[in-house]
Amino acid sequence: MTRVGVCLSGCGVNDGSEIHESVITLLALDRAGAEVVFMAPDIDQMHVVDHRTGEPIPGEVRNVLVESARIARGEIRDVAEVQASDLDALIFPGGFGAALNLCTFGVDGPTCTVHPAVAQLTRAVHQAGKPIGAMCIAPALMAKIFEGVTAVNLTIGTDAATAEAIGALGARHTSCPVTEFVVDRENKLVTTPAYMLAQRISEAAEGIEKMVKTVLEMA
Amino acid sequence: MTRVGVCLSGCGVNDGSEIHESVITLLALDRAGAEVVFMAPDIDQMHVVDHRTGEPIPGEVRNVLVESARIARGEIRDVAEVQASDLDALIFPGGFGAALNLCTFGVDGPTCTVHPAVAQLTRAVHQAGKPIGAMCIAPALMAKIFEGVTAVNLTIGTDAATAEAIGALGARHTSCPVTEFVVDRENKLVTTPAYMLAQRISEAAEGIEKMVKTVLEMA
What is the pTM assigned to this prediction? Predict the structure, then answer.
């Protein structure tokens, strides 16, 4: 059975993992017969956002691993305890959490920092020749992690400013419609725009399902 | 375009809506071309559970409508402001929130109370001859709402104690495997066990997708 890590960053598009993307990924993996290993860093979220108003809630603190456990129904590991040898592939859903909790790209752009265990595991999976999938804003995290390591080809859709920031990290951005995906066969990196472009959940799902299928074919 | 209300109860299986069930419902509705109207009551959750440990967090307070907005990506209405005439059908995902926040069945059993606006809207949708779907533990909520109104036929899977409590409310429980569903054609009520029985997300999805299809056919 193919074991696929899914690295979460909280629970909710504005301060954590995009929930639809995470569940669509899980469902596609399960339907393909893969075993999912959920993981997240054991750190506080950068902030907590009221998803009804879109405004941050001053003083509120939530833990990324604990909130991610809502999506994982409790079956989740601290990313710091996961080894590349535990996995056959690794996938990153999007949501602001990928750009605020797993790294600081959403605040700092190309000069951002990445959570050490997330960076270490991702590079180790890559070095082991195993495929990586990323969607929505998470490809920016991949660009930072592989800065100075290898020139990855990826997509975050069509957003010009984000594409430019990704270029500054030494990655190549390819524009891509929401229902499609970009494959970097040399680096075994598969990316799809998801909610960077999706107007409806079914649009995001089409691209994510194709991405998951391609990751599993490479695993 | 068919407008389908989806009534949420928070964000997370242990104290709110079951996230997988909610997203699978949304995706099935969107793929069928239906318009989804998310709603939830504007009340505090009964409690907040750490989904990593499964333990309640003493003193923590979260609002059902605000947390449900995480699943709805901000597009959600207070259930008290939704009219039956706004909808062609109404669906209830499960999760403990359906039995702790939308009603008190999870604490009080057959003598539970139901959030007034949830009960009122559900009865109005039924009286208007529009179909209702419910999954997981949410059929118990339906049994309470229709107690003394009409004898509904439904399923929560195979759990004997819950089935007995449902019987005490005047409803008829039919055992049902996770990948199937039960239709009460007279009352236009369609139910499926989902995570009352599911061991894998793909099992829950199969039953939910069939339930959604049947609700839309009745709408």
Answer: 0.98
Comparing CB atoms, the residue among A11, A13, A26 nearest residue B201 is A26
Angle between helices B138-145 and B160-168 (to 10 degrees): 10
Tokens of B20: 């997988």
> CATH number, domain at B99?
3.40.50.880
Around B175, how many Cα atoms within 13 Å sit in the side-chain half-sphere?
4
- Model ipTM value: 0.98
pLDDT in tens, A146-175: 999 999 999 999 999 999 999 999 999 999
Q: Which two tokens stand for residue A146?
A: 């592989």
Identify which of B121, B201, B176 has the alpha carbon closest to the alpha carbon of residue A75.
B201
Range of the domain at B94: 3-218
Say how many domains are in chain A.
1
Handedness of CA B51, B36, B137, B147 (dihedral sign): positive
Of A70, A92, A69, A94, residue with least CA distance to A13: A94
Report whether A168 contacts A158 (CB < 8 A).
Answer: no
Residue B201 forms contact with A (CB below 8 Å):
yes
% of chain A beyond a pLDDT of 70:
100
**Which among A53, A59, A63 is positioned nearest to A8, based on CA atoms?**
A63
Q: Which of A141, A149, A196 lies closest to A170, judged by CA?
A: A149
Of A14, A30, A76, the CB nearest to B52: A76
